[in-house]
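C-alpha cells help. One example:
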Amino acid sequence: MADKAALYREQIEGAWEKFLPAPLSEDPAGLVIEAMRYSLLCGGKRVRPVLAMAFCELCGGDPTSALPFACAVEMVHTYSLIHDDLPCMDDDAMRRGKPTNHRVYGEAMALLAGDGLLTLAFETALSFEGEPAKARKAVKLLAQCAGAQGMVGGQCIDLQSEDKPMTVELLQAMDKGKTVALIHAACGMGCMAAGAGEAQLQAAAKYAHGLGMAFQLRDDILDVEGNAEKLGKETGMDAIRSKQNYVSLLGVEEAKRLVDKYTEEAVLALEAFPGDKSFLRNFAESLASREN
C-alpha cells in the first residue's frame, strides 16, 4: 500500500506546477499566488487527492487522468484550512508544523489566498481531458460538497456551537459537512473520471461516509491524546475553545469503538467494486490508527 500511496502523492506533487505555477517577479498580484502556494505546497497527507486517484483506478481508469479532479479537491480543502485558521474562525497559529497563512501573510492576504484557491479549483477541474460530460458532473459534485449543503454548512454549525450544548446528532451533522463532504467529492470524482456507473458512485459515497466519520473521530481522539509535535499543531484546542467533540460527549473508549465501526463500514462498501480492493481497504485502516 505504501508504494502505491507514495506513487499517487508523487504524481500529485508533480502536478502543482502545472495548475499553480510560481509567480513571475514582475507580477503585481504575485503575493497572493505566493500565499496560495505557501499553504498548498506545505505537505499534508493528501488524503482526498489520493482517494480520487485510487477510485479512478479501482473503476478501471487511468489514475493520472483524475489528477485535475484530485488537485481541485485538495485546493478546496486547503482554502478551507486557511479560512478556518483565521482570527474570525479558530485563530490557529500552526498548521502542519508551520505558521498558519495569516501569521505569515496577514489576515487580508490569507483571505484572498483562500478565495484564489477556491476559484482555481474549478478552473483546474475543468482542465480534465476526458469527456466534457464527466467534467461537468464532477464539478457539480465538488460544488455541492463544498457549499452550504456540505463543507460550508458544516463550518456554520461549528461556529454556532461554540459555548453551547452539543448533541451527538448535531455533531454528526457538522462532521458530515466539515469532513465527510469533501472526502465524498474526492471518491465520487475519481469514479466519474473512470466513467463508473450509479451503483459504484453510491458505494463510493458509503466508503467516504465511513472513512470520513472515522477520520474525524480519530482527530478528536488525537486532540486529547495526540502528540503536538507529530500532529504539527497544538492539542487540547477544542477544550480551550469550549467546543464539545466525540471524546467529551462519549469518552475516549466509545470514540475508539466508533472509529472501528465506521472503518468497517468503509471497507464493506468496497465489495461493490470488482478487482483488487486491498489499497483502499488498507488506506482506511491506516487512517483509523494514524498518529498525525
About this structure: DSSP finds 15 helices and two strands in the chain. The chain has a mean pLDDT of 93. Residues 198-225 form the longest helix (28 residues). The domain at 2-16+29-288 is CATH 1.10.600.10 (Farnesyl Diphosphate Synthase).
